[in-house]
Amino acid sequence: MRVSYEFYMRSFDLLGQLHENAISASILMTLWHAELVAPGRKPMVVRELSRELNLPYETVRRHVRDLEQAGVCVVKKGGLTVPDAMRGDPRATRLLRKIYVNAVRLLADLTRVGAVTFPSASRRAPPSGPLADEQMIIAIAAIALLLAGVRLMRDFWGGDLVKGLVFTAIWTANVKHVTTSRATTSSLLPDDLRQPVSVLAISRSLHLPYETVRRHADGLVREGLAVRAGRQGVFVPTHVAKGTMEGSVAGHRLVVAFLAELRRGGVKI
After folding, report:
1. 173, 203 in Cβ contact below 8 A?
2. Using only C-alpha atoms, what is the Rg of the chain?
3. Taking the domain 160-246, which CATH number applies?
4. Helices 199-206 & 161-174, crossing angle to 10 degrees?
5. Does domain 2-153+252-264 have CATH number 3.40.30?
């Protein structure tokens, strides 16, 4: 789960490249993913988007209206889709390549801990141009994993995606020294083995402003969800980590579904 959360941390920045607002970015990514999965499919209506994103209809409708006005999504055949120009846009190709690279890194990390077998060295993305067929399968499945993970994190944290990202970045950093190898533990690490992490390090890892991360970290400390360890930084205590196991189990299911989607597409892992 830690290496999969690192995938989310890296990929969240890609959403920001689509739009500065997380909900608008999720809408655009969902529309783009639908087009990649089934080119020429019937455009999505707002209610369908609302179900996909698990967001209130009016919230999605408001963001869609703003996106339409900005020209980054269009009404077509009674529904919504990305503009035709995006399909061949070099920026979209570069974004797909970055998503693919993140997915390969996730699969390489899962290989390192013994979860799958994926020879990533032979599957490097081309420096330019479109992705190969297998690479497209991996990239499209990775988009679905990212969208599902963002939805799960937003729902688990009551709609506050950034708070969830900061919390997740803290606890993954706290246990990184243990889970960077195939060594595993059958129980959660006790507090004295968790390595605190600085707010600055979290800010850099999430590509979020320092003050934004500091504000959320302070809030987590006030709520008792994180603890300060002097100048060393902050850590998520064991009893809090136990309380979030339900979310981790749900996140594990998403990764299993991602791997199953790759296998259905013919990717050998």
Report:
1. no
2. 19
3. 1.10.10.10
4. 120
5. no
d(CA 76, CA 67): 14
Q: What percent of the chain has pLDDT over 70?
A: 93
Which part of the chain has CATH 1.10.10.10?
Answer: 160-246
**Residue 190 DSSP code:** P
The CA distances from residue 158 to 52, 57, 155, 182, 188, in Å, are 17, 17, 5, 34, 25
Question: With 60 as the cut, is the pLDDT of residue 182 above it?
Answer: no
Q: Give yes or no for residue 174 having a pLDDT over 70.
A: yes
Tell me how crowded residue 133 is: count the other CB atoms within 10 A of its CB: 9
- Which of 212, 33, 197, 7 has its CA nearest to residue 110? 7
**pTM (global) more than 0.90:** no
Q: Cite the beta strand spans of 83-195 per DSSP E.
A: none
Q: What is the pLDDT of residue 122?
A: 62
Identify the CA nearest to 266 among candidates 168, 135, 156, 169. Answer: 135
Q: Which two tokens stand for residue 146?
A: 């990212």
pLDDT band at 188 (very low <50, low <70, confident <90, very high): confident
Helix axes 133-156, 2-18, angle to 10 degrees: 100
pLDDT in tens, 197-244: 999 999 888 778 899 999 999 999 999 999 999 989 999 998 998 887
Q: Which of 26, 17, 22, 18 is nearest to 44 (CA)?
A: 26
Residue of 194, 178, 177, 149 lying closest to 10 (CA atoms) = 149
